[in-house]
Amino acid sequence: MPLLGRAAVAMWWDMAPEHRTEFEDWHSHEHFPERMRIEGFRRGSRWASASGAEGFFVLYELDTYDVLTSPHYLARLNAPTPWSTKMMPRHRNMVRSQCRVLASFGAGIAASLLTIRLAPQPGCDRALGDALLGALTKVHGVAGITGAHVLQTDTPRSAMTREQVIRGGDKSADWIVIVAGYDARSVSDVSGGRLGEEMLSRMGAEGHQIRDLFTLSHSITPSEL
Where would I find the H helices in the chain? Predict the structure, then answer.
């Protein structure tokens, strides 16, 4: 899964089981199409917790970093539809990171996904970036893996949007590693091996890292509307 463009919005949240059916209907049939009509949005994908838990991960791939502050995007964020206004408060434990794509390897859309949220040790930004670049080129060559990417959060300086106010504000990640594959076990093995906590710490990452496994729920591009 090569990322389309040089920027992205990466989001994690929990959705209670009693709201899940309506959430997936809204997100698939109103929210995704709305976002894909914004100039510069290249692809949206939604991923559900591989364990059946309440977590979701959503990734929007953008042409350039400037899309994050484009008038069209900000207009949508500040004028949510009635259905969006209803659904936004149900996004629990929201983490929303506006990112630059540092590296991206792969091709196609896969069924399984690993996300790792991490932060560099003080003074180790460059060392961590270089080490991740080398590690991801090797991970991409592993059987069962189709893509490996690293994102870095770079939050634009702008006022809190109406959607954020409705949700009560969002947290953000720092650096994000994404590994995609057609074989769920291979993706999981990467999390405990080549990109395990101890290995990433040696590369220059802080010890506390958040790891989640997901399966593909829905994906859409502007040309599919």
Answer: 17-26, 32-36, 71-77, 82-87, 125-139, 162-167, 184-192, 197-203
